[in-house]
Amino acid sequence: MRMSHDALAGIRVTCVAVYVPALAAAQRLRESGARISVVEPPSGDPLETLAPAWYHRLHEGIAARRMDLKSAEGSAQFGELLADTDVLLIALRPSAAERLGLGWTALHERFPMLCVVSIVGHASPNAERPGHDLTYQAASGLIAPPALPRTLLADLAGAERTAYVAATLLVARARTGVGHRSEVSLEESLAPFAEPYSYGVTKSDGLFGGALPRYALYKTSDGWIAVAALESHFWRRLCDALGGGELDRDGLERAFAKQSVEYWARWARERDLPIAAVE
């Protein structure tokens, strides 16, 4: 989603991180008008090698530079950058941030107007525990082995929450006159997205997990389609278009197997039905 406003015009954001969550959050803030600087370690961001096209997408409109924050020169350069920064995004373990002089107490003393969002895997007091998107999703019940997730849901959920939290810290600063700090846990950011499953809604016998023939996947002659005729008017229109009568799952399976994905996608558009090809 691209923002169409410049609500954060004039706001300067610095990001100390590699990989996805902080960069995706920075892009959200940039899309609202903020100016973004990304500080990478001397070795760069591994994402640039692993997924170069996505790396460059996440860096659209963003100034990236490499600094050795462990060196006196790099630390001094970073201090100059922070003096002109409104929001700092950090994706480091707390102990690593402290070693680099990026702990909240030290930062707030030097830059009292600075707002800081610390992105961690597990919420404090467990912020030192290692983890990645895969382990957070596994613990949330969102993985069906042996298939791996098709998206980095925890990382991207955490990015959205980080952008939101950064904006709230700026509001708090405007009200209090000083910077504030908040922590965003990727594991906790994922929790709301796991609720449909944890409450049984998307389990195999749940409302959106396969219990309803009108909300399911069907095999065609050359692929799969998703049918989401949930509302009664869509369901009635679908049944009528396929010959009338209340169709069950077997009837729908037989009907959809006769034609191709492209045929059914076009057929659905012509009848204003919520059916889509599974890509």
Structure in words:
It is a single chain. α1 packs across α8 (153-176) and α8 crosses α9 (186-198). By secondary structure, the chain is α/β, with parallel strands linked by helices. It has a six-stranded parallel sheet with strand order 3-2-1-4-5-6. Strands 7-8-9 form a three-stranded antiparallel sheet. The chain has two domains: 12-197, Rossmann fold; 207-277, formyl-coa transferase, domain 3. The model has no long low-confidence stretch (mean pLDDT 95). It has helices spanning 21-31, 47-50, 52-58, 72-82, 94-99, 104-110, 133-139, 153-176, 186-198, 207-211, 232-241, 249-256, 261-270; strands at 12-16, 35-40, 63-66, 87-90, 115-120, 181-185, 215-219, 224-228, 275-277. The longest helix has 24 residues, at 153-176. The protein is elongated and about 75 Å long. The chain contains 13 helices and nine strands.
